[in-house]
Amino acid sequence: MATPDDQLYAPFRPRFVRYVSSASIAAATIGLMILLTVAPGTGGQGYARSSAAGMSVVVLAGIAFLWRQGSVRADVDATSITVRNLVVVRTFAWEQVLAVSFGTGDPWVMLELADGNQHPVMGIQRADGAHAASDARRLATLVALHGEAADHTP
What we know:
Blueprint (H helix, E strand, L loop, with lengths): L3 H5 L7 H23 L10 H22 L2 E4 L3 E5 L4 E5 L3 E5 L6 E6 L4 E8 L4 H17 L1 H4 L3
Antiparallel strand pairs: 1-2, 2-3, 4-5, 5-6
């Protein structure tokens, strides 16, 4: 049985983008296999090896992008938050995080950092609706428990 701490420290992962990425990866893989097998427009002779290799490279690059997009997340523990976005993975000690913002038009949550910068957390995305709002509140709770704001409470 999961304890409240297990739920509080569960990873932040988007739902919608994972489903779309997984379906798109499957469709691209099946489409490439069909394209290479049927080889339309070749009169039954099939594609030249270089053409087949070129198509495969393009589709595999697309699949790699989709996999990376589907694997965005934020992992938290008692000392830090590790944010894995599309390209960059960064770890912030809780003391570096001042607040969490999730404005009405924002596509994902933003961390307000002590150095004055913001950092996106693509693991909590607006497309997930109520689930995203709940995750944003959970992240704000963690910041209040561990962040710089917790150090300044009387």
